[in-house]
Design goal:
- With about 375 residues, the protein is α/β, with parallel strands linked by helices.
- Helix content is about 45%, strand content about 15%.
- Helix 5 runs parallel beside helix 6 and helix 6 runs parallel beside helix 7.
């Protein structure tokens, strides 16, 4: 698919639960990464059809204080464009959390049935729900009864390579009241050691009448176009590539601004500005929300993704980590010195721009 055709396709509105989403390229929910400061940077570039929070504990959300929480927090005016992802083990807890989400004015609520991190699975949450389809379906039904906003379900193939249980669950989720499915075609124990099985997305899409978003190893415009063409899914949910390149939504939808903007292929030779500016914009957003020293520490979670963009990213990461190691002691939240040192180091390392990889380093992305 030509880049212009892909951009036009991704800009098409999509109806979810009777509400209109202005595009088909969405931010995937990511624990520890998809917080308000990062979403601010993504929205600053444009092109993202729908934003998602990181995982929020359904049991805590009813009494959570957004000014104290890292996950259950948002920018002023953001909720109408934002879906809150909840994780939990019991339908009643998810329903209570969903009521708070609706009360805060969110676009929708997303039920996490995909996280396979052992700490989550051992608590009966995330992908563990796929081992108990009856409980998973009851959860969707309970949330549907509790709220009027769109209900999303993020899930994956399951605990074996056989896609049929996921296909059956997709139908049952729709019958229980889900408005949209976000599907990741890997088995639950697999932490990206094997490629996603795209054919599973197509099987899920064919089984239901509600929208299905595809997810998994989409790093280039060609990946995105191929996923849409091969599976028939209604749109694409981007995770790691969005952390590495927060302007990716603007690039692939053709709305990237700037005199040298190159369109969906996002060629750094034509438009190097976002490659240099986005890490600094993220640091600034983190500092405004969390203070300088905490911003430096939080930036460390993003660093492996940012440096995966470059041919010699591992060396770049090492140099920046040394700067960060020197700036985080003592950890005084109001000390701007460490923040300035990291900002200066980023400017020096990224201007001129190092050699860019079209597809980010799988070695660093897998860390």
């Amino acid at each position: 698919m030509h880049d212009a055709a892909l951009a036009a396709r991704l800009r098409q509105p999509l109806t979810v639960g009777g509400r209109t989403v202005p595009g088909r390229l969405w931010l995937a929910p990511m624990a520890g990464l998809g917080h308000a400061a990062f979403r601010e940077v993504v929205e600053g570039y444009g092109g993202c059809g729908l934003l998602f929070t990181g995982m929020c504990n359904a049991r805590a959300v009813p009494t959570e204080r957004p000014e104290k929480s890292e996950a259950f927090s948002w920018r002023e005016g953001e909720p109408p464009r934002l879906v809150c992802q909840l994780f939990g083990a019991e339908p009643e807890h998810m329903a209570e959390g969903a009521r708070r989400v609706q009360a805060e004015g969110f676009f929708g609520v997303d039920l996490n049935m995909g996280c396979s991190v052992s700490a989550i699975v051992k608590r009966g949450c995330g992908a563990d729900l796929l081992r108990d389809p009856e409980r998973a379906v009851r959860m969707v039904a309970a949330v549907r009864r509790a709220v009027d906003i769109p209900v999303f379900v993020k899930f994956r193939t399951g605990w074996s390579p056989d896609p049929q249980p996921a296909v059956d669950l997709a139908r049952r989720f729709e019958d229980a009241g889900a408005d949209c499915l976000v599907f990741h075609p890997r088995v639950a124990p697999d932490r990206r050691t094997q490629p996603p099985r795209r054919a599973h997305i197509g099987l899920v899409r064919a089984a239901v009448s509600i929208p299905v978003m595809g997810n998994g190893d989409v790093f280039t415009p060609e990946d995105c176009a191929g996923l849409l063409d091969d599976t028939g899914c209604d749109g694409v949910s981007l995770g790691r590539i969005a952390v590495a390149r927060p302007w990716v939504f603007a690039a692939w939808t053709g709305v990237l601004t700037g005199a040298l903007a190159g369109g969906p292929d996002d060629d750094p030779a034509r438009n190097p500005a976002p490659w240099r500016e986005a890490p600094l914009a993220l640091l600034d957003a983190l500092a405004r929300r969390h203070g300088p020293a905490r911003a430096v520490r939080m930036f460390g979670k993003f660093l492996v993704y940012i440096t995966a963009n470059y041919t010699y990213g591992n060396g770049l990461r090492g140099r920046l980590l040394r700067v960060m190691g020197q700036t985080t002691a003592p950890p005084a939240l109001d000390d701007p010195g460490g923040l300035r040192a990291l900002q200066d180091a980023l400017r020096a390392e990224l201007d001129p721009l190092p050699a860019v990889l079209r597809r980010p380093s799988a070695l660093l992305f897998g860390m």
